[in-house]
Every structure is written in structure tokens, then in C-alpha cells.
Design brief:
two-stranded antiparallel ribbon, single chain, Sufe protein. Chain: A, mainly alpha
């Protein structure tokens, strides 16, 4: 499945909810399903800079695709990183680098986040794309 197809899936999923309280509940449930990062990877060098909460992100290149794992100490943030992993994981570095993340605006996520969480989201995207750039030479 492509990044664009995964984004469409997320948009469709979030369109089922009437208000943002329900969407937040859904984000929290996504966080509970997050592929948890190995405890050994919960190191300072895996912390995403720019997030108010602590968010650890790890990436591994497997068969030409990047597989992300993460964890956070905040439930909403955990849901946000889970959403980002869902969209990006199992994609090639080139796909991640070239992707245009339209789903964030389409579901209204950025406008319903506090400024600090919104900055954290931008930092998550930036870090995931940096991993893709780093892995690009290994494919």
C-alpha cells in the first residue's frame, strides 16, 4: 500500500467521527496499538527534538523499506506518532522523502492541536524524513 493510499484510509477513518472529542479518543486508541520501541532504543539520541513530550523514534531498514517503532510518555502524542508510523512505515526512503502529507490538513489535525503539539508533529515528520534521507544511500 502506498503512502497516498494510507493517507486516504486515515482520512476516511477520521471522517466517521462527528466531533473532535471522538477524534481525540480515536487518536488515543491508535496510541495503544503503537508498535512499541525496544526498551534499549529509549535513549536520548532517539528522542525527537522539538516535542514537549518525550517521544522516542527508531527506524530500521528492512528489505528496502523503513520500519518505524516509537513510544511517548503522553497519550495524545503517542497517538500522533502512531498515526505517522501507520502512514510512513513499510515505505521506501524515496517514497517517504517525496511524500506530501495531505491527510494532516484533511482531518483537521494541526488546527486542533496546541501550538506545542503542532510543533511536535512537525518535528516528528522532519525526523522521519531525516531517517529516510539517511537510509536512501543504503537502498
Amino acid at each position: 500500500m502506498s503512502i497516498a493510499e494510507r493517507q486516504d484510509e486515515v482520512v476516511e477513518e477520521f471522517s466517521m467521527f462527528e466531533d473532535w472529542m471522538d477524534k481525540y479518543e480515536h487518536l488515543i486508541s491508535l496510541g495503544k496499538e503503537l508498535p512499541i520501541i525496544d526498551e534499549a532504543k529509549k535513549q536520548d539520541n532517539n528522542l525527537i527534538k522539538g516535542c514537549q513530550s518525550r517521544v522516542w523514534l527508531d527506524a530500521q531498514l528492512q528489505d528496502g523499506k523503513i520500519v518505524f517503532t516509537a513510544d511517548s510518555d503522553a497519550i495524545i502524542t503517542k497517538g500522533i506518532i502512531a498515526l505517522m508510523i501507520r502512514v510512513f512505515t513499510d515505505s521506501s526512503p524515496q517514497e517517504i522523502i517525496a511524500s506530501d502529507l495531505t491527510f494532516i490538513d484533511e482531518i483537521g489535525l494541526k488546527e486542533h492541536l496546541s501550538p506545542t503539539r503542532s510543533n511536535g508533529l512537525v518535528s516528528m515528520i522532519k525526523q522521519m524524513k531525516m531517517y529516510a534521507i539517511a537510509f536512501q544511500t543504503q537502498v
